[in-house]
Amino acid sequence: MAKSLSEFVCQNCGHHAPKWLGKCPECNGWNTFSEEILKARSKNSRSGGTTAPGKYGGVQAITEVQGLTQARWTTGIKEFDRTLGGGMVEGSLILIGGDPGIGKSTLMLQSMGAIARSGKKVLYVSGEESPSQIKMRAERLNALSDHLLISSEICIEDVQRLIDKVNPDVLVFDSIQTFYTAELTSAPGSIGQVREVAFKIFQDIKKRSIPALLIGHITKDGAIAGPKSLEHIVDTVIYFEGEKGHSYRILRAIKNRFGSTPEIGVFEMGAEGLNSVENPSEIFLAERPTDCPGSVIVSSVEGSRTLLVEVQALVTSSSSIGMPRRVATGFDPTRMTLLIAIMEKRLGLHFQGEDVFVNIAGGLKVSEPAIDLGIATAIAGSLKNQLIDLKTVMIGEVGLTGEVRSVMQLDSRIMEAERLGFQRCVLPSTGVKEKSFPNSNIELCFVKSLAEAFDVVFS
């Protein structure tokens, strides 16, 4: 009888060790190792089984490989299809992560209900809710269908036997951390269980050529619990973002083997579920104040979509001594501190003793450097207590010497600004060389430095 082997795995980062350690050498976490029993293998066993025919066995020239036809299935939700690159590809494994209560299960049930109504058979396997609970949500979301099958089985071997019996067209696992395999003795949700279950699902759907969606919890630092090994197995990784106090949600693809990244979809959470937002710029700008310094419109490109969003800044006298606050919501706080240092050094503005707060309106998170110029302008406008023209859009990256650097896709940013009725764009001076600018009536102001940009907007 083959001897069973075991190893110790860190539940934070997935680091493997032959014996128990008090402190993980990879993530420096304490008491994070747990023992996992490995499946025994015969000494004479060989992985791979039979060898594929060909001149070199399983190896063949890339010119002889049969091409993949990407047959896509639409989900019935436009913004979800956009994020996936046009729909779900047969045999693809899609991982969707997000904070608890953000709307992951709602999105899945809503989209699977639409697919089931189109005649395809959907198997929704939930380890977190009972069938009666799922039906209550399905009634609210109008997702009831005879082709939508529900199961609460959490053993992956039993689920595979259920798949053989039902033969579904689409699979959903909610959530991947609740499932386990009988081949491991560790508890469901552990690193080994999540990785092994995901790999079994991956092998099964590739053999059947059906799409599968996994819902995954995220950790305190915002990463999908698994950890990264789970993201490497799947074909597509999508994060569901948004603040619970806001009604808008962002679906962002950070990995997609069958589409572009980072593509986003915008939703509005309503009483009857998630509604697609086809013109998010208009939504984000709808409640913009008209008489408050520190409000600036910036242009951001997310995947194939151009968004105009409002940046709000507030500079006020600090109540703390020697340690003014620097708080940013929806934007990198370190980048904001860097822009403040540039304005102090290059423009002589004084922020000592001033608290600075920056917010991207609407609960949106933007990391693109093209909004640097807008962030700096909003902060300076609040400090100077000067209004900025409501019909002006700021576009550009700011360097350490105070120069305004070029950004990509200036033409699409200008077209979006003109479509929404803006009359002036402040752009990097290198944009003069662009030959693809659309013929428009919008005024283009090319600037080389932050000082020139401030002369334009504060004159």
Give a quick set of tags describing it.
459 residues, Rossmann fold, 3 domains, 9-stranded mixed sheet, 7-stranded mixed sheet, 23 strands, globular
Topology readout:
Layout: E1 5-10, E2 16-17, E3 33-38, E4 72-73, H1 78-84, E5 88-89, E6 93-98, H2 104-117, E7 122-126, H3 131-141, E8 148-151, H4 156-166, E9 170-174, H5 191-208, E10 212-216, H6 228-233, E11 236-241, E12 248-256, E13 264-270, E14 273-276, H7 280-285, E15 295-302, E16 305-317, E17 326-329, H8 333-347, E18 354-360, H9 372-384, E19 392-394, E20 397-398, E21 404-405, H10 410-419, E22 424-428, E23 443-447, H11 450-457
Parallel strand pairs: 6-10, 6-11, 7-8, 7-9, 9-10, 15-19, 17-18, 19-22, 22-23
Antiparallel strand pairs: 1-2, 1-3, 4-5, 11-12, 12-13, 13-14, 15-16, 16-18, 20-21
Helix pairs in contact: 2-3, 8-9, 9-11
Explain this structure.
By secondary structure, this protein is an alpha/beta fold. It folds into 3 domains: 1-41; 72-278, P-loop containing nucleotide triphosphate hydrolases (Rossmann fold), CATH 3.40.50; 282-457, Ribosomal Protein S5, domain 2. 26% of the residues lie in helices and 26% in strands. It contains 11 helices and 23 strands. It has a 9-stranded mixed beta sheet with strand order 8-7-9-10-6-11-12-13-14, with helices on both faces. It has a 7-stranded mixed beta sheet with strand order 17-18-16-15-19-22-23. A hairpin with a 2-residue loop joins strand 13 and strand 14. Helix 2 crosses helix 3 and helix 8 packs across helix 9 (372-384). The termini are far apart. Mean pLDDT is 86; it is low at 42-53.
